[in-house]
Amino acid sequence: MTSTNQRLVSLGQNQPALKGILRGIEKEGLRVDEQGVLATTPHPPVLGSALANARITTDYSEALLELITGTHDSIDGLLDELDKTHRYVAQQMPQELIWNQSMPALLPAEADIPIAWYGTSNTGMLKHVYRRGLAVRYGKAMQCIAGVHYNFSLPDELWDVIGIEGISPQDRRSKGYLALIRNFSRHSWLLMYLFGASPAVSKSFMRGLDHPLQEFDADTLYLPHATSLRMSDLGYQNKAQSDLQLCYNDLETFLERLYGAVTTPWPDYVRIGTHRNGEWIQLNTNILQIENEFYSNIRPKRTTSRCERPATALAERGVQYIEVRCLDIDPSSPIGISAVTSRFMDAFLLFCAVEDSPLFPNNGYCRDSHDNFGLVVKEGRKPGLVLIKQNKPISLADWGQELLERLMPYADLLDAAHGGAEHAEAVAAQACKIQDSQQTPSAQLLRHMRDTGLSLHDYSLEQSLQHRDALRARPLSAAAMQEYKQIASDSIAEQKRLEDSDTEDFASYVARYHAALKRPC
């Protein structure tokens, strides 16, 4: 195994490979009316089929849009596509808009929050019933929390440079991504401090649940030093996952524990059962219905085909990319994320891939990393906050400054490959937040609310309306508009084709889907 410095030198000698880094974004956002009330209307047909449109779909709720980019080898290309999709959506919803805040808008009664619908094909029904299970297990309000998922992959040429010698390319890639995930786990608290933008929630969201929040105003609750209540355990009442500790030391152990979670019954879910009044209410009674139910800040991923299980795909073909799931929506950006954040993410994730990444002790679980993350989302801006690094206390400010300095060589490498100095500038721009917590997005959001006298709901609505209007003010070209309409039309036709071609009853399909999960060797 080469040293970090040697790997950095080798990367500098492989600039064309650095240009082969790919990234993609999945950006969620609630549909709301012009008063900021959750839309209970069906997914707009003009946006196509939520089942088959690769660019515009829904997440847990029918009202929770998910706008998905393809993979891009440049930040400009990535954000240009995301911008076009937002402009298309904004222009197709005359009475609605996208809520540009991670914490939900005004929600109707729990029973009236619509679960995402994907049609009557077996594939569509599997997605819908899975979401019914999420509603039973966690409550529908929790399904309305939104974020930005950042997908990232390195070309095989780079894994050849920084990976372990003497193993197959597939194993080298998988081991490299798991090492990246371990380093991400150690340092992801930094992302929450720098980019967390959900320090407050509307009172209506808590719905009588016990909580430690303080009153900001008559309609808003908050924690004074929080960065991202979205990523806290706020409102999380489910216990089944609380003791679930997946191991990122090796893919085999990770998959073995994931397999156990999706095949082991949980008593509370057994009591609920899979059917109520003759209808499916969850796919099974196990700790996890399927692999994606595991809530994590980052996931190893592999694309799958219809009826293929994610864990089986990972076991057979290895890790293909990673999905970062902890980024809040940026309320100041019409598309929920800025170019500066994206460039910082690339430097940060490259750093996580290249730096030494020792295995986690304690059966693959790192308590300090878990605790640091949990502390920063709730108290990240607390003066003098102390974290734990390698079993020793260190101030957040000192560790944050150290990490920014260690990230800079990776930003420089990306700038050398792509030209310019924008990655280095993106890293340098974070220094002011480390030095002054009032510069963080979470602090700025609270300050704007105080200055304007607006509640979180009213402030977020004002921002969302401004973003909607700004997106509409830049109509797509006729060719781009036609492209999006064609994609929507084709997706509706594809959903109908799937529905017409299904001959298997749903119960048999579910049984076959469960049987497709193979125990890791």
Would you spell out the secondary-structure blueprint of this structure?
Layout: H1 4-12, H2 15-18, E1 22-33, E2 56-58, E3 64-68, H3 75-92, E4 96-99, H4 122-138, E5 148-153, H5 156-162, H6 169-187, H7 189-195, E6 200-202, H8 203-206, E7 214-217, E8 220-222, H9 251-263, H10 267-272, E9 275-276, E10 279-280, E11 298-301, H11 310-317, E12 321-327, H12 339-354, H13 361-364, H14 367-379, E13 386-389, E14 392-395, H15 396-418, H16 422-428, H17 431-435, H18 441-452, H19 456-472, H20 478-501, H21 506-515
Antiparallel strand pairs: 1-3, 1-4, 1-5, 2-3, 5-12, 6-8, 7-8, 9-10, 11-12, 13-14
Can you describe what's shown?
The mean pLDDT is 95. The strands form four sheets. Strands 1, 2, 3, 4, 5, 11 and 12 form a seven-stranded antiparallel β-sheet that branches. Strands 6-8-7 form a three-stranded antiparallel β-sheet. It has 521 residues and is of the alpha+beta class. Helix 3 packs across helix 19, helix 12 crosses helix 16 (422-428) and helix 15 (396-418) packs antiparallel against helix 16. The protein is globular. It has one domain (4-515): Creatine Kinase, Chain A, domain 2, CATH 3.30.590.20. The protein has helices at residues 4-12, 15-18, 75-92, 122-138, 156-162, 169-187, 189-195, 203-206, 251-263, 267-272, 310-317, 339-354, 361-364, 367-379, 396-418, 422-428, 431-435, 441-452, 456-472, 478-501, 506-515, and strands spanning 22-33, 56-58, 64-68, 96-99, 148-153, 200-202, 214-217, 220-222, 275-276, 279-280, 298-301, 321-327, 386-389, 392-395. 45% of the residues are buried. A hairpin with a 2-residue loop joins strand 13 and strand 14. Helix content is 47%, strand content 12%.
